[in-house]
């Protein structure tokens, strides 16, 4: 059985991957991580033959020993039962999160991606930039600071050609829903606002001229790339999805090789990578999201991303 970790609001991509896994002859169980404290029962026993970890949903009991692989798509915050006394919420969250990770840590099987590496990379954009640079890719000059003086000096050093963004994105779906702070080009009149950085550290980067924006889906050595003509906005996710026209794009082999090297350095089998193709033809790496969205590329460009995720995971299971 293959465990597919996601959340209760997930649609489309989770269904596609589960269907593909079943076509490869593997049972796929959808685990909505946000419902762990309300929909599932957990059971841990230390037996004479060793530890036993079980997850139960309705009448179905899943033993950790029966799980052969994991597709880790998303891990959402736990839903708190509305009837729970607020005084007990901290204990509820602490104990359920501990129980969840005890269960997940017991799964010594192939993962795409391993949860610890996924979180380590997704939570550290400076690590991503360092790995990309070490792999031979060009990256933007970057400052991450809570100090206004540093930010103003960075702005002046780049003659005002600077963008600003949060290190950790707020929520954003492939349809463009949800709270969001986009990558924004810093204007001269915004510079005095940098005094407020002490309340919220932010990333400043040199502005990179664009011909195309690229969303590259990497799956264990395979690539699927969609491109957009550079929009008016700094961040393509600000535009109405009805106006976004994705086009298939073929990366040069030397860029694919550098991305592959970076992903192997980071220990990831999957990632959604954002790059810029400049008007002069140079490629610039921006970031890799280990849980990045790709459904729009499968939907609008017909890329077999779900099938490739399923195939790569099954291959890893068979090669164990």
Automatic annotation (TrEMBL):
Alphabetized UniProt keyword annotations: ATP-binding, Nucleotide-binding
Pfam families from the UniProt entry: ATPgraspMvdD (PF21068), RimK (PF08443)
Record InterPro entries: ATP-grasp (IPR011761), ATP-grasp_RimK-type (IPR013651), MvdD-like_ATPgrasp (IPR048936)
Matches recorded under Gene3D superfamilies: ATP-grasp fold, B domain
Lineage, highest ranks first: Bacteria, Pseudomonadati, Bacteroidota, Chitinophagia, Chitinophagales
Domain ATP-grasp: 129-314
Official protein name in the record: ATP-grasp domain-containing protein
Species: Chitinophaga chungangae
Recorded superkingdom: Bacteria
């Amino acid at each position: 059985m293959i465990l597919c970790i996601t959340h209760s609001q997930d649609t489309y991509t989770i269904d596609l991957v589960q269907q593909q896994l079943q076509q490869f002859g593997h049972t796929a169980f959808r685990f909505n991580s946000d419902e762990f404290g309300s929909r599932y029962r957990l059971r841990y026993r230390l037996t004479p033959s060793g530890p036993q970890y079980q997850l139960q949903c309705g009448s179905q009991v899943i033993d950790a020993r029966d799980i052969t692989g994991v597709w880790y798509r998303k891990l959402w915050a736990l839903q708190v039962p509305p009837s729970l006394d607020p005084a007990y919420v901290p204990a509820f969250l602490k104990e359920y999160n501990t129980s969840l990770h005890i269960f997940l840590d017991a799964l010594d099987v192939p993962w795409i991606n391993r949860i610890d590496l996924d979180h380590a990379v997704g939570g550290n954009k400076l690590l991503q930039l360092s790995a990309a640079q070490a792999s031979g890719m060009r990256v933007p000059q970057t400052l991450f600071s809570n100090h206004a003086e540093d930010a103003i000096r960075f702005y002046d050093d780049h003659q005002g050609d600077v963008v600003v963004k949060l290190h950790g994105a707020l929520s954003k779906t492939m349809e463009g829903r949800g709270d969001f702070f986009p990558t924004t080009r810093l204007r001269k009149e915004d510079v005095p606002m940098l005094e407020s950085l002490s309340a919220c550290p932010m990333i400043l980067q040199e502005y990179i001229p664009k011909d195309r924006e690229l969303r590259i889906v990497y799956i264990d050595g395979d690539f699927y790339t969609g491109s957009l003509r550079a929009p008016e906005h700094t961040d393509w996710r600000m535009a109405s999805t009805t106006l976004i026209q994705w086009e298939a794009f073929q990366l040069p082999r030397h860029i694919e090789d550098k991305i592959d090297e970076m992903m192997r350095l980071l220990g990831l089998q999957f990632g959604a990578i954002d790059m810029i193709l400049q008007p002069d033809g140079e490629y610039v790496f921006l970031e890799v999201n280990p849980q990045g969205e790709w459904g729009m590329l499968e939907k609008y460009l017909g890329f077999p991303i779900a099938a490739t995720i399923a195939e790569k995971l099954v291959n890893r299971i068979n090669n164990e």
